[in-house]
């Protein structure tokens, strides 16, 4: 099997980008070991700190954030770093070519129950001039690489550099990532959806109607049975979509009017959208294509609807209906 390094060489990407991806991969192997040690290493549980989103930080959130931050600052190719766990952007190497955004441990609420977690990353070109948060405010179309690492029964790396999506599996004997799927592809149609049903009463009318029609199955307007799957970690739910199709959505809701969106644009929605589009799927907020959004701040949140192209299109059709109008009798 081809190693990650061999695969990157075959893609003819720049030596700097190859070095950066290998640094991310090597750090993810260290994170994988930390996750697997769990309670044995005393790294489970929550701290008394909150991140910039107001979420209680887990011990492993902080540990993995520091592991990635230290590795990227030492890499030499990285101009700056943005993380879910950092209030502000982090300066790295003044000569670095790239900016890296990451969620060090997506799904960290799953840590204490030994369920799926992962790392998500996005690589952007570093613009010339003074380094600041504005340097990161680029649409997802500017990404030169993106991926995630899933820490499950096997540790797996899904990666795109804009030339399709490759899936690598960590060989625990050699600590090497080996290519196990050279061209991941999302089926255009699906019979699976993933959504947090506990928020149903807070969704907008288009999503309420869409999900209700899915739940009606063969006797509803879709005339087809659908199954629901929900892992409560974006990295796990998107991995399933990449492997066997489906639609994943975390839509707009009014549960907290000050926070109508859940997922972060720069280090969750954009990298996952890049992967999904490169695998033949689609990604939208319901009203605009995610990777076309011009960011306004580093921790910006957006609604997410992504997955099998035809099913995403169907969901978007519901969002074009004006549900404010009373039906005509």
TrEMBL record:
Q: Does the keyword Metal-binding apply?
A: yes
What are the residue boundaries of the Fructose-1-6-bisphosphatase class I N-terminal domain, all occurrences included? 14-181
EC code: 3.1.3.11
- Binding-site residues, Mg(2+) 2: 103, 106, 268
Spell out the Pfam families in the cross-references: FBPase (PF00316), FBPase_C (PF18913)
Q: Does the keyword Magnesium apply?
A: yes
| Highest taxon, organism lineage | Bacteria
> Where in the cell is the protein located?
Cytoplasm
Comment on bound cofactor = Binds 2 magnesium ions per subunit.
Q: Which reaction does it catalyse?
A: beta-D-fructose 1,6-bisphosphate + H2O = beta-D-fructose 6-phosphate + phosphate
Pathway recorded for this protein: Carbohydrate biosynthesis
Tell me the GO molecular function terms.
fructose 1,6-bisphosphate 1-phosphatase activity
Query: InterPro entries from the entry?
Result: FBPase_C_dom (IPR044015), FBPase_class-1 (IPR000146), FBPase_N (IPR033391), FBPtase (IPR028343)
For activity, the cofactor(s) needed are: Mg(2+)
In which residues is substrate bound?
106-109, 196, 262
What region holds the Fructose-1-6-bisphosphatase class 1 C-terminal domain? 187-319
Q: Which UniProt keywords apply?
A: Carbohydrate metabolism, Cytoplasm, Hydrolase, Magnesium, Metal-binding
- Coiled-coil ranges per UniProt: none
Residues binding Mg(2+) 1: 84, 103, 105
NCBIfam families xref list:
PRK09293.1-3, PRK09293.1-4
Instruction: State the family it belongs to.
Output: Belongs to the FBPase class 1 family.
**How is the subunit organization of this protein annotated in UniProt?**
Homotetramer.
Protein name per the record: Fructose-1,6-bisphosphatase class 1
- What lineage is this protein's organism placed in? Bacteria, Pseudomonadati, Pseudomonadota, Gammaproteobacteria, Alteromonadales
């Amino acid at each position: 099997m081809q190693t990650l390094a061999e695969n990157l060489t075959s893609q003819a990407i720049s030596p700097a980008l190859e070095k950066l991806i290998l640094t991310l991969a090597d750090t993810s192997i260290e994170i994988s070991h930390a996750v697997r040690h769990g309670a044995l290493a005393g790294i489970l549980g929550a701290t008394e700190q909150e991140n910039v989103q107001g979420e209680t930080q887990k011990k492993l959130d902080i540990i993995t954030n520091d592991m990635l931050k230290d590795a990227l600052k030492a890499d030499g190719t990285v101009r700056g770093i943005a993380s879910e766990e950092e209030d502000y952007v982090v300066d790295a190497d003044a000569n670095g070519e790239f900016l890296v955004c990451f969620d060090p441990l997506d799904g960290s609420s799953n840590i204490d129950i030994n369920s799926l977690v992962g790392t998500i990353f996005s690589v952007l070109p570093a613009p010339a001039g003074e380094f600041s948060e504005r340097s990161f405010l680029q649409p997802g179309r500017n990404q030169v690489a993106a991926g995630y690492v899933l820490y499950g029964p096997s540790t797996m790396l899904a990666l795109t550099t804009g030339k399709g999506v490759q899936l690598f599996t960590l060989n625990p004997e050699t600590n090497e990532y080996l290519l196990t799927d050279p061209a991941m592809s999302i089926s255009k149609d699906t019979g699976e959806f993933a959504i947090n049903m506990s928020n149903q009463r807070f969704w907008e009318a288009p999503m309420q109607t869409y999900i209700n029609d899915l739940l009606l199955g063969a006797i509803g307007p879709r005339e087809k049975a659908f199954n629901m799957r929900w892992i409560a970690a974006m990295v796990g739910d998107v991995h399933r979509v990449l492997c066997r199709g489906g639609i994943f959505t975390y839509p707009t809701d009014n549960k907290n009017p000050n926070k109508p969106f859940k997922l972060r644009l720069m280090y969750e929605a954009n990298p996952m959208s890049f992967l999904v589009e490169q695998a033949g799927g689609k990604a939208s907020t319901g009203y605009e294509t995610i990777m076309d959004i011009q960011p306004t701040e580093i921790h910006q949140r957006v609604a997410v609807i992504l997955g099998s192209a035809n099913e995403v299109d169907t969901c978007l059709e519901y969002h074009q209906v004006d549900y404010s109008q009373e039906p005509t009798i």
